[in-house]
Predict the 3D structure of the following.
Amino acid sequence: MITFEAKIDDRIVRMYSSYPLKNAAGAIFKTLTQIQSQNNTNIFDSKFVLGFGWSFFYTSETKDENGNTFYVLQTNDYRKNPFKDRTNDVTLALLAQNMQVEAVGVANVKPEVTTFRDTILVLKEAMNAPDVYMNRTEPSKDGDSGWYFGLLNDPNEENHKPEDYVKLCSFELFKFRSEALRVLELPVGTVAVFHDNDMTALVDGDDNPMKFTTRDEREKLAAKAREEWSAAVEAAKAASANTDETKKEDKKEE
């Protein structure tokens, strides 16, 4: 598990992730710092909640093995019941954040926030189908994302009955089409097409193509990020070792 750490208002805040998602972690730390310094909000209050894009985050006071106090950033546990369970492992939240920020940036559109608890109308038959699409319309009410998840080229599209559909919270996409999480903050009118877990087409409300990255492009960027992270870790280890050696030499001289 990778630890991200920041000092905010002279207090240590840590985040734990399975992947080196430093950009996502850094954006959250920056937001927490701004809130603590500019608003009449105490981010270290047990009742504090940070709504950051798709996810919610909470600060939890704890102590290390030496009894020193620090704060762990928690999020809703999407592997269990996110409405009542929290976790110190923010990996899934950071992954979703990275995916959505990247999609909005590449498409060059203004994001329209969807949270993990907002609902999506899903055609049951489409959940395990290879070729599907998602279409975003105006939300009908609070808590509705406006997203529909359906079967591509559905021969029975006009004949489905109400029982053929189910409303799911957006976090449940993790279970059957995780790549679809990528498009959740794209605006009303967006249509995204998927083959298995790969997005193959993306258009706006006027059927104009929107830019998006392919799996190959993202894998290359991820590999580069892992290399940079490994290099940074090795450099930090080397710097720490040099510092220890310098201290030993100083003691010898004394």
User: Anything to note?
Assistant: The chain has two domains: 2-96, 111-213. The first strand starts at residue 2 and ends at 8. The chain has a mean pLDDT of 89.
